[in-house]
Write a structure and sequence with these properties.
Blueprint lengths: L1 E2 L13 H17 L5 H7 L9 H17 L2 E8 L3 E8 L13 H15 L4 E8 L3 E8 L3 H8 L9 H12 L7 H5 L32 E7 L9 H10 L3 E7 L3 E5 L5 E5 L2 H11 L3 E4 L2 H16 E7 L1 H23 L4
Parallel strand pairs: 3-4, 3-6, 6-7, 7-10
Antiparallel strand pairs: 1-2, 2-11, 4-5, 8-9
Helix pairs in contact: 3-11, 4-5, 4-10, 6-8, 8-9
């Protein structure tokens, strides 16, 4: 456990003095009882032998300990829901997604799983949709509305190529519009600059960022689904490095056949190979996780797992308020027991 104000922990040194003061007061009370002739007073003074008499004092001691600890403002890692978050779905729509090894086809299974994922996701989480094949496209900007997302998922159009790196970069440009991430410029060959136009004047200029710990950005995550390997666009790991430097986690779903021929819905065989090593590295670099889905059932299971993972995050949170609340309950219990057993608060 960490503390915001660890210098206040020295106040805990007061605690050993409290039992000593309590025993001293009991001793004084016993001596004073001898001076009175009333048996009732003597009986009351000797009641210290009854264990119940010490319970309220013990509870008050615990109350003071909790309050003194709360002054140091302790921090604990707790699983908590995100206060506000954005999830970007980056989905492969290359022609290989029409392969039918995942029934009825990879694309259809991915569409069903994505819509089920949306239906189970809390309504206060924004979701955006990026599609990619040879190029990447923002199919739907991040929104709390689910109907436009469902319509965009139903309207997928397959294309040639697979530009996984471009999809990641486009997701980052959506999450950080002020960072000036230009996917077209990043896609240009080394040493070759993209031709400029009048629209470039309106684009945010690229900014230098200070890299943060991978996975440390708490307000957004990317779910990337692909069934192949990069055939176009920027390098996949270069794009993953951009996400890692911004602390954005990428959860990667590998779909379909790892290697070899697979049939299309029309019965035609297509040779393809899922680049699992690269996809696993993308997840590792960004602090995310890799999932393999070889069937429609596995794919739905993956999205269900991702839903529960993304809704709750373990974060370091100050718990001084919780300690103060518990201390108040303990003090209330001490007072109630004292009144119940002895007819007064003592």
């Amino acid at each position: 456990m960490n503390f915001v104000r660890p210098d206040f922990l020295w106040l805990m040194l007061v605690l050993p003095l409290m039992p000593a003061a309590y025993l001293w007061l009991l001793g004084r009370r016993s001596k004073a009882a001898v001076r009175f002739s009333s048996l009732a007073v003597i009986r009351e003074a000797s009641a210290g032998r009854n264990w119940r008499r010490h319970v309220p004092a013990l509870l008050l001691f615990i109350t003071c300990a909790l309050l003194l600890l709360a002054t140091a403002r302790p921090l604990a890692r707790l699983p908590l829901p995100w206060a506000r978050s954005t999830i970007l779905l980056a989905m492969d729509v290359s022609l290989s997604m029409r392969v039918s090894d995942v029934k009825p086809t990879r694309l259809a299974a991915a569409q069903v799983a994505a819509k089920q994922f949306l239906s189970e996701l809390p309504r206060d989480i924004e979701v955006g949709l990026i599609t990619f094949a040879g190029t990447s496209l923002v199919a739907q900007h991040a929104t709390l509305e689910r109907d436009p997302l469902v319509a965009a998922i139903n309207g997928f159009q397959m294309q040639y190529g697979t530009a996984i790196g471009n999809a990641i970069a486009l997701c980052l440009s959506e999450l950080f519009p002020d960072h000036g991430i230009d996917v077209e410029q990043l896609n240009a060959s080394p040493g070759k600059q993209r031709s400029r136009s009048l629209d470039d004047k309106a684009r945010p200029q690229p900014v230098q960022i200070t890299p943060v710990a991978p996975g440390s950005y708490p307000s957004a995550a990317i779910i990337l689904l692909s069934d192949g390997r990069r055939t176009a666009g920027m390098d996949t790991l270069q794009a993953a490095k951009m996400a890692a430097d911004r602390g954005v986690r990428i959860y990667v779903v590998g779909l379909g056949t790892v290697a070899g021929d697979a049939p299309t819905a029309e019965g035609m065989a297509i040779y393809l190979q899922l680049d699992e090593p690269t996809l696993r590295e993308v997840a590792r670099m960004t602090g995310g996780e890799y999932f393999y889905a070889g069937t429609a059932e596995q794919l739905r299971s993956v999205y269900t797992t991702l839903g529960s993972t993304l809704q709750v995050q373990t974060r370091e949170t100050e718990v001084s308020g919780l300690l103060a609340f518990v201390a108040a309950l303990v003090a209330l219990a001490a007072g109630l027991l004292s009144v119940l057993w002895f007819g007064r608060i003592a």
